Amino acid sequence: MSELDFLRNVLGLQQEDLLAEALAVCKIKNVPKGYKLFDTGENPTQICLLVNGVFRGFFLDADGNEITDCLVITPGYPLMPDSNLNVSSSLTIEALTNSLVFTLPISDFLLLAQRHAAIQSLYQKMMLYSWGYHHQLKVMMYQYSAAERYRWFLRYYPNVLDQISHK
Q1: Do the beta carbons of residue 153 and residue 143 sit within 8 Å?
Q2: How confident is the model at residue 30 (pLDDT cuts 50, 70, 90)?
Q3: Is 141 left (phi over 0), alpha (psi -120 to 50) or beta?
Q4: CA 76, 82, 86, 90 torsion: positive or negative?
Q5: How far apart are CA 145 and CA 151, in angstroms?
Q6: I need a surface site. Which of 33, 41, 78, 80 has the fewest CB within 10 A?
């Protein structure tokens, strides 16, 4: 998939001037399994969105064990550690499969957002999705039995178990 196809067909952006500006600064990158887009404590410099593949966000508990916070499998969804783009990463974002990622420097994203309402709207939509998804995870973790959580996982992430480690 080309950058233009991603912008138009996945993100739904159609304004020609916006597309021209974004194409000058965005890239689609191959990311190998195990690659970390962001490490905890790192200051992000890129906006990253999934083109294809599987990613997880995780943090370490007090004993140094990895705790998976979220999985991302849907093209166009953000692979960002935090909604505030100006803070150090609270999570590590890692590829669980060989993947493709759309990238855009944060500085260019902020300029595009100042000039184009469509970018502001897209960012708001992504923040609302992320909030809703993480809220759903909290409810599921605290209110569902282990069997119910497993059924939820299979429904929400079809075919993912065939692609990733079961750890």
Answers
A1: no
A2: very high
A3: alpha
A4: negative
A5: 10
A6: 41
Rounded CA-CA distance 65/58 in Å is 10
Q: How many CA atoms lie within 13 A of 104 on its CB side?
A: 28
Pairing of strands 99-105, 46-52: antiparallel
Examine the pLDDT at 28 and tell me if it is beyond 80: yes
Measured between alpha carbons, how far is residue 109 from residues 19, 44, 101, 142 in Å? 12, 12, 16, 36
pTM listed for this prediction: 0.86
* Structure-token pair, residue 14: 């159609």
pLDDT digits (tens, 9 = 90+) for 5-23: 999 999 999 999 999 999 9
Q: How far is CA 104 from the centre of its chain?
A: 13
Q: Where are the alpha helices (DSSP H) in the chain?
A: 3-5, 16-23, 106-115, 117-143, 146-156
Q: What are the tens digits of pLDDT across the range 103-160?
A: 999 999 999 999 999 999 988 888 888 888 878 878 887 888 888 878 877 787 777 7
Question: Which amino acid, one-letter code, is at 64?
Answer: G
pLDDT of residue 17: 95
Q: How confident is the model at residue 166 (pLDDT cuts 50, 70, 90)?
A: low
